[in-house]
C-alpha cells in the first residue's frame, strides 16, 4: 500500500508522457477481485482505461447532454483457474449514492466466505488526472469470520492508472492477516490497456508476494481483463474478469 502511494506520488512529479496458488484455501482469494476496475466518482462521468479523455459518453454524443447522477453501480465476476488449483469465481457487487459506498463480495478473503463493506467515496481531479479513495469497514463471515477495515485507491495521470485494494482481516478464530492488491495500468490506443499486477499477503506465520501481468479492454460501461500470475512457474494461474458499471 505504501509502495503504491509512493509510486503515484513520483508519477505526479514526472513529465506526463487488490494468494498462493498451491494452497488457495489457506490464503485470501485473489480479488481482482481483482477488483481492478475504475472507481470513478459517482457524480462524475466515468472514463475507463484506454478511453480518450476528450470523449464523454457515446461517440458523437453532445457532452452538454450528459446528465449527472448521484447513483453508481458495478457488478463484477472474476474466475480463477490453473493446473494446481480448483477453478472458482469471485463475485463483487457495489453501489454508491452521493458518495455512500455499499459493497458485497464472496470468495474474496477466503473460499466459502462472504463479506459486506460500508464506506464513503472521495474523489478529486478530472479524467486526465484524478485521485479517488474509498475507506471502508467490513464484516467477514463464513469459513473465515472477523472484522476488516479496508481502503480502495484509484489514481490516474494521463494514460497511467494505479488501482490498489488493501484490507486487514481481524479473524476471530483463525490467524489475522493483511492483504494488498495493486494494478499499474497503461492505456494503449483505443479501449485496450495492459499492465502489471502484484498481490501481497502478510500474517504472523506467512509472507507472500505474487506478481503477474494483465491485458484488457473497456469502455465507459463494460470491461474485460485477463490476468496471468507467476507466469512460467508450475503454480501459475490465470483469471478472467468481467465488469458492468453504471
What are its keywords?
246 residues; mainly beta; Porin; 13 strands
Task: List the SSEs and their pairings.
Elements: H1 2-12, H2 32-35, E1 71-82, E2 85-97, E3 100-106, E4 113-120, E5 122-125, E6 129-142, E7 146-157, E8 160-171, E9 177-187, E10 192-203, E11 207-218, E12 222-229, E13 237-245
Antiparallel strand pairs: 1-2, 1-13, 2-3, 3-4, 4-6, 5-6, 6-7, 7-8, 8-9, 9-10, 10-11, 11-12, 12-13
Describe this structure in words.
The chain has a single domain, classed as monomeric porin ompg (Porin). It is 6% helix and 54% strand. It has 2 helices and 13 strands; from the N terminus they run ααβββββββββββββ. A 12-stranded antiparallel barrel has the order 1-2-3-4-6-7-8-9-10-11-12-13. β3 and β4 (113-120) form a beta hairpin. The radius of gyration is 17 Å and the shape is globular. The chain starts with a helix and ends with a strand.
Distance between the termini: 28 Å
User: Average pLDDT, to the nearest integer?
Assistant: 80
What is the total tally of β strands? Answer: 13
* Approximate helicity band: under 10%
Identify the quaternary structure here. single chain
CATH architecture annotation name: Beta Barrel
At a glance:
This protein is mainly beta and 246 residues long. The protein is 6% helix and 54% strand.
Amino acid at each position: 500500500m505504501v509502495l503504491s502511494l509512493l509510486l503515484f506520488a513520483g508519477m505526479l512529479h514526472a513529465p506526463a508522457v487488490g494468494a498462493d496458488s498451491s494452497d488457495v484455501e489457506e490464503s485470501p482469494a485473489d480479488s481482482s477481485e481483482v477488483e481492478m476496475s475504475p472507481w470513478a466518482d459517482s457524480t462524475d462521468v466515468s472514463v475507463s482505461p484506454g478511453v480518450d479523455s476528450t470523449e464523454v459518453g457515446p461517440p458523437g454524443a453532445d457532452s452538454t447532454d450528459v446528465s449527472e447522477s448521484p447513483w453508481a453501480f458495478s457488478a463484477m465476476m472474476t474466475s480463477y483457474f490453473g493446473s494446481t488449483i480448483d477453478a472458482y469465481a469471485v463475485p463483487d457487487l457495489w453501489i454508491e449514492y452521493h458518495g455512500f459506498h455499499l459493497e458485497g463480495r464472496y470468495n474474496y478473503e477466503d473460499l466459502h466466505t462472504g463479506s459486506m463493506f460500508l464506506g464513503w467515496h472521495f474523489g478529486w481531479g478530472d479524467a486526465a488526472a484524478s485521485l479517488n479513495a474509498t475507506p471502508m469497514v467490513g464484516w467477514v463471515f463464513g469459513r473465515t469470520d472477523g472484522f476488516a477495515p479496508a481502503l480502495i485507491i484509484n489514481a490516474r495521470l494521463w494514460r497511467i492508472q494505479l488501482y490498489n485494494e488493501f484490507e486487514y482481516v481481524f479473524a476471530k478464530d483463525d490467524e489475522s492477516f493483511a492483504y494488498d492488491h495493486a494494478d499499474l495500468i497503461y492505456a494503449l490506443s483505443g479501449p485496450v490497456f495492459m499492465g502489471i499486477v502484484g498481490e501481497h499477503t502478510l500474517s504472523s506465520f506467512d509472507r507472500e508476494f505474487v506478481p503477474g501481468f494483465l491485458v484488457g479492454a473497456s469502455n465507459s460501461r463494460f470491461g474485460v481483463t485477463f490476468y496471468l500470475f507467476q507466469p512460467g512457474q508450475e503454480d501459475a494461474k490465470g483469471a478472467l474478469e468481467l465488469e458492468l458499471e453504471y
